[in-house]
Amino acid sequence: MTQGSTDYGLYIHIPWCVKKCPYCDFNSHEKKDDYNEELYVDALIKDLSVEADKVKNRTLKSIFIGGGTPSLFSATSIKRILDATHQALGISDDTEITLEANPGTAEAQKFSGFYTIGINRLSIGVQSFNDKHLQQLGRIHNAEQAHNAIRMAQEAGFERINLDLMFGLPSQNIEQAINDIKLALSYQTGHLSHYQLTLEKNTLFHKHPPALPTDELIWDMQVACQTQIDKTLSQYEVSAYAAEGQQSRHNLNYWQFGDYIGLGAGAHGKLTNEQGTISRYWKKKQPRDYIKLAGSPYVIGGQNIVKESELPFEFMMNALRLKSGFTLDQYQQQTHQKASSIQTTLDSLIAKNLLQLNSSTYRCTEQGWNFLNNTVEHFLPTQ
């Protein structure tokens, strides 16, 4: 699927969770005194009126409502957001609209309501089907609730469902990791995201690291899990697997270096102007600041223009995550840079057996895929 330069995505951030997970470095806040669903939706709609001016005469291809835990919000509140989006931007029958959800029982009960108002893709943060591992991860749901949530989503009518799973968990062995995969695949949801647990800065796990499996065991675990997943789904990105036609359109837009606008506390956006200049921006992170400032220029927490010298790295950091790779035409269209700006590096990586060229498409070799960070670093600007 190739994104045209006029297509864009919309990311909407709902910043609250019942409880902050110890491994999470996203902009999420525990549901406390500053939680006000109605005021936050009001702020999103004000913010939307400003963002809409940036994408006039362009086509909205996907909406992703992430968090935090968006499924904390009522279907009524989500409908208000979607109605305002339809009025400001237009939502076609083909627009993919994803909502992230956690398997807590109270939220799973809302799935029918979400489906009725037009959410057509659900991403459920299962992480594991093992109660011990869920407890170690600080999740508020148990395995039974995870199973119930998936069943309820399917019964509500959702045909596009992603399940998030993690591996490399404290005390996890290969058999347990494979069992998680088998249980997830048994639901035939069509999409699976499979991430390694990493200890990110500014998280509780970074301050107080749990004992994780050895690097060797994690590698064996990853290989064994991928072998299991490949029997049913096709890997199309480093951490994503899908049945045919079930790939996440919103995430594909990111990986293909497409444009997107961001609404909500801490939300990011990326836009290309008519001259080909690419800028990134982000909103104030604290919910109360965002609610107060939405609709004004002061809601912007920061912005920067991507330098021409940084564009090859920025593009490759996304495009090489895809198994399908990229063409030079796509590179030129998305970066507005000449192919000659990267040709020497491409030739060098082919010589090192990190990239391969098939017809007009560049993609990682097995070695380049396994050492992806190293492969991408070759595109960093020289000092």
Question: In a nutshell, what does this entry contain?
Answer:
The chain has 383 residues and is an alpha/beta fold. It is 38% helix and 23% strand. The protein has 16 helices and 17 strands.
Can you give a write-up of this model?
This protein has 16 helices and 17 strands. The protein is α/β, with parallel strands linked by helices and 383 residues long. The chain folds into 2 domains: 7-254, Alpha-Beta Barrel (TIM Barrel), CATH 3.20.20; 309-377, Orthogonal Bundle (Arc Repressor Mutant, subunit A), CATH 1.10.10. The strands form 4 sheets. The protein has a 9-stranded mixed sheet, with helices on both faces. Strands 12-13-14 form a 3-stranded antiparallel sheet, with no helix packed on it. Helix 1 (37-51) runs parallel beside helix 2, helix 1 crosses helix 11 and helix 7 (174-185) packs parallel to helix 9 (215-229). The longest helix has 15 residues, at 37-51.
Q: Helices and strands in order, then pairings?
A:
Blueprint: E1 7-14, E2 16-17, E3 29-30, H1 37-51, E4 59-67, H2 75-88, E5 96-101, H3 105-108, H4 111-116, E6 121-127, H5 131-136, H6 143-156, E7 161-167, H7 174-185, E8 190-196, H8 204-207, H9 215-229, E9 234-237, E10 240-242, H10 249-255, E11 259-263, E12 268-272, E13 278-283, H11 287-293, E14 300-305, H12 311-319, E15 326-327, H13 328-335, H14 340-351, E16 355-358, E17 361-364, H15 366-370, H16 372-377
Parallel strand pairs: 1-4, 1-11, 2-3, 4-5, 5-6, 6-7, 7-8
Antiparallel strand pairs: 8-10, 9-10, 12-13, 13-14, 15-17, 16-17
